[in-house]
């Protein structure tokens, strides 16, 4: 392998949107580092799939991003695996409701850590390598960073912080590193505690000008576009079917 093949670290990459970002970057010629916390089997299967398409082009990295002691080791492994790093995609995220009257410090810590603290300190840990490579950072934000989602105040606060982090680091790390964000709207329906009823889904889509959900590929293609756009930094692109046109 030569350094003509760039390397991307995608956090939370084993499933859903993260897995699609991994496949899309890989198909564009990237070697990919598939980060996961608990989804080991899915991560291994994804890396195997990608390595069958192009040998020695994918690897897995495990780390709990809620644990600050694991950030620096993850950064070191990310650089050492292929000997370089050109792109960091901060995708890993926790998402669950926190109605104000029922919210707790534990929920605050979990949502802030995964959506804001970990992306910041991982970006810092990798900044020297990314500067050397004239690389970039892409953060997966959320349209609710601008208009808070009802019953999700802590999540919305965390994503608002990630939006400002994107803009701040674009200044702080320039000119060597570009920093941009992608703000998805209704892409995949949330699961588990955050699952929506069919009525809720219909009401949400009624407020989307394109009247449909997007796909993980829509987000992944936007990540690829930003990664390959050398004169764009500090920007956050909404991939939401027009939802952010309305309150």
Q: What overall form do the CA principal axes indicate?
A: globular
End-to-end separation = 48 Å
CATH homologous superfamily - what is it?
A: NAD(P)-binding Rossmann-like Domain
CATH class bucket? Alpha Beta
With helices defined by DSSP (H or I, 4 residues minimum), what is the helix count?
7
Q: What is the CATH topology classification name?
A: Rossmann fold
Helix content: 40-55%
Number of DSSP E strands: 7
Describe the structure in your own words.
This protein is an alpha/beta fold. It has one domain: Rossmann fold. It is about 45% helix and about 15% strand. It has helices spanning about 15-25, 40-55, 70-80, 105-130, 155-170, 200-205, 215-225, and strands spanning about 5-10, 30-35, 60, 85-90, 135-140, 180-185, 235-240. A seven-stranded parallel beta sheet has the order 3-2-1-4-5-6-7, with helices on both faces. Strand 1 (about 5-10), helix 1 (about 15-25) and strand 2 (about 30-35) form a beta-alpha-beta unit. Helix 3 runs parallel beside helix 4. The longest helix has 28 residues, at about 105-130.
């Amino acid at each position: 392998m030569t350094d003509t093949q760039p390397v991307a670290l995608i956090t939370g990459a084993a499933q859903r949107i993260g897995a699609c970002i991994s496949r899309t970057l890989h198909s564009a010629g990237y070697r990919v580092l598939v980060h996961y916390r608990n989804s080991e089997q899915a991560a291994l299967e994804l890396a195997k799939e990608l390595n069958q398409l192009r040998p020695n082009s994918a690897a897995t990295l495990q780390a709990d991003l809620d644990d600050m002691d694991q950030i620096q080791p993850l950064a070191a492994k990310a650089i050492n695996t292929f000997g370089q790093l050109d792109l960091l995609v901060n995708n890993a995220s926790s998402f669950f409701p926190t109605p104000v009257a029922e919210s707790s410090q534990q929920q605050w810590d979990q949502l802030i850590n995964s959506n804001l603290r970990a992306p910041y300190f991982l970006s810092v840990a990798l900044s020297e390598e990314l500067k050397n490579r004239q690389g970039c950072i892409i953060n997966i934000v959320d349209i609710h960073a601008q208009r808070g989602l009802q019953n999700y105040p802590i999540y919305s606060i965390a994503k608002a912080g990630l939006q400002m982090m994107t803009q701040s680091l674009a200044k702080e790390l320039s000119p060597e590193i570009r920093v941009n964000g992608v703000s998805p709207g209704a892409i995949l329906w949330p699961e588990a505690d955050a699952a929506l009823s069919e009525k809720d889904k219909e009401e949400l889509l009624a407020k989307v000008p394109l009247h449909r959900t997007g796909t993980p590929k829509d987000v992944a293609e936007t990540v690829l576009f930003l990664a390959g756009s050398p004169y764009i930094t500090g920007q956050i692109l909404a991939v939401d079917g027009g939802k952010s046109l309305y309150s």
